Amino acid sequence: MNFPMDWKTIIEIAILWFLIYHIMLFFEGTRAIQVLRGIIIILVAFFVIQRMNLEVVDWIFTKLFAISVIAILVIFHPEIRQGLARLGQRHLFGTALREEEINLILSEIINATELLSREKIGALIAIEKNDSLNPYIESGVAIDAKVSSDLIQTIFTPKSLLHDGALIIQHGRAIAAGCLFPLSESQDINRMFGTRHRAALGLSEETDAVIIIVSEERQDMSLVYQGKLHKDLSRETILSKIKELLKYKNE
């Protein structure tokens, strides 16, 4: 079936934008997203150059593009792996959980972190939102247990083998402990913050997880989300903030 040239062009543009949109979703939450945007601009320029029949520039772009594809695969291997792990796994924290169950889980988490802060015991807890945390779950020890204050306190007890890593909450379950997160390379982080804060910020720069930090030095609770640190929060403030962030996701 032959379409007029105008319709063909419209269909081609629609298909290209559809593919570009899903590729952007694929890399969303990774450091490769900025580079990907640059590549898309180059592709658009390449398309324009071909239409204008600029042969020399077209030849140069073709050769550079072939080399850049290999370079991208090598340089951004971790981001590509993360994107593949997340592909088709975008979901909601509350999909299979009622509001009362979510409130109970959050209450158990806050009860534990409050007690840990009083005892000067550090902790790092990440609650999965839309972006899958599976790549980071693989770095820890699978536990897949019901979320409870006693369990969280046990995990972060100083003599525990898992206390130095992070606990990940997925689908309303304590899915893994002793997990490792990427450390943020931001130079804006105050030197008073340690490895836990850098790890929380690092994860928040790559995913939309809601992350709770308990500082053993300052005996306070902090919240990190999308690269922003909310420090020294009260029980009521941190609880309402987490509910707000998870509710926003559902909307």
Outline the structure in words.
- The protein folds into 2 domains: 5-86, no CATH class; 99-250, YojJ-like (1.
- The protein is an alpha+beta fold and 251 residues long.
- The chain is built from 9 helices and 7 strands, in the order H-H-H-H-H-E-H-E-H-E-E-H-E-E-E-H.
- Mean pLDDT is 79; it is low at 88-95.
- A 7-stranded mixed beta sheet has the order 2-4-3-1-5-6-7, with helices on both faces.
The rounded distance between the terminal residues' Cα atoms is 42 Å
Annotation, overall tally of beta strands? 7
Tally of contiguous helical segments: 9
Largest sheet: 7 strands, mixed
Strand content: 15-25%
Q: Give the strand order, joined by hyphens, for the main sheet.
A: 2-4-3-1-5-6-7
Q: Name the CATH class of the largest domain.
A: Alpha Beta
Order of helices and strands: HHHHHEHEHEEHEEEH
Structural class: alpha+beta
Compute the average pLDDT.
Answer: 79
Radius of gyration: 22 Å
- CATH H level of the largest domain: which superfamily? DNA integrity scanning protein, DisA, N-terminal domain
Q: What keyword list fits this structure?
A:
9 helices, seven-stranded mixed sheet, YojJ-like (1, 2 domains, elongated, 251 residues, alpha+beta
Q: Topology of this protein?
A:
Elements: H1 5-27, H2 32-51, H3 55-75, H4 77-86, H5 99-118, E1 123-127, H6 134-137, E2 141-146, H7 149-155, E3 166-170, E4 173-179, H8 195-206, E5 210-215, E6 220-225, E7 228-233, H9 235-250
Parallel strand pairs: 1-3
Antiparallel strand pairs: 1-5, 2-4, 3-4, 5-6, 6-7
Helix pairs in contact: 5-7, 5-9
